Amino acid sequence: MFSSRYKKFDEFFKELLENAEKSLNDMFVRTYGRLYMQNSELFKDLFVELKRYYVGGNVNLEEMLNEFWARLLERMFRLVNPQYHFTDEYLECVSKYTEQLKPFGDVPRKLKLQVTRAFVAARTFAQGLAVARDVVSKVSAVNPTPQGTRALLKMMYCPYCRGLVSVKPCYNYCFNVMRGCLANQGDLDTEWNTFMDSMLLVAERLEGPFNIESVMDPIDVKISDAIMNMQENSMQVSQKVFQGCGQPKTLAQGRTARSVSESGFSARFRPYNPEERPTTAAGTSLDRLVTDVKEKLKQAKKFWSSLPGNICNDEKMSVGTVNENECWNGSAKSRYDFAVTGNGLASQVNNPEVEVDITKPDMVIRRQIMALRVMTNKLKNAYSGNDVDFIDISEESSGEESGSGCEFQQCSPEFEFNATEVTGNSNKSDKKANTSAATSSGLSQAALFLSILFLAMQRQWR
Asked: Which residues contact 240 (CB under 8 A, 6 or more apart)?
């Protein structure tokens, strides 16, 4: 689930930026013609930096946008004052008046706020989906301990050794075995649920004030409005700049640059009609994407703590909560009398079915708990509109592998195959051969079951 949603969001955000850049370029070429094409690298650089920020580049959005407006002011100032010669030093002085004079009106301030919040939320949300994907993938690959494998083998296959072929494990017995086998996974639950809550909060921001689609779709109109505002107030702006930076030198007669009006730059910007606008990014909309993923995030809460129950609720794994006297309790066909242990590693100290060393937590899972904690803090900052550092999701966690490759252990002596219960008396050599075959088959099937178990867990998140 998280892998497919991350790919969809990532595709949507990247295509949204491509569409916004194409829309601006097409409309500015049509509206401003040669003047725009002569200065198009300024706008191209804007989108290059926005894309670089999204994919994890070291870009300070506020500084980048301030630089964009300062460079645009330098270009515009030349165009509205074609009779003067401006040195690079003079234009640098001009750019310092961007904030003070507000030549572009209130557009830069509003756009900076909108772009910063929207991009921070979008990038962090996509990163959150990627972190969730990686956590599930890495936890799914955690190997079971020898003690867990032994308990699982005993639960699944030792009834066959007693001739109880059709008897399924008791529900609470299954619960204790799975709680013990998934003890470390259970410790993910608290941090996982907090992480899910933070993802849902940022999702709400994406639907509302931090909606990147509503920011990028009309960005061409907003920038054009700023340009027109500068043109309409060019005389007042120029006079104040001359007062602060000094009177520039007049160009020699005959060398006067073409004015804005002569170049046709005074044309009022004409935005596309709705039917002319590019198609929605990735064939969908942000609202639809967020609505879909919010439902999945809600379903994902408490997944790790409920995993043992979800497994034991499968009719192939236990009898369920009925027929409690007609089930395999680990030693016979009878009621299971032990209480169910709690969730998580520490609760397994008194697990009657699985020997769990609570002093040795699985390090792969501990690293995933830390990864969730770090990502949750970033999501909380993004929710408040604060920029956050990028997480390199391509970097795999280092460290030792979890679990053990030790040999599986067969059923304890009291559960050894007893031929008299199934086929009557037979010689000892036959019994030993049958026991070995049953154990070998059970071991391979137990390993297969564990593989299916974790693959099934991965499939649930697709």
From this structure: 97, 101
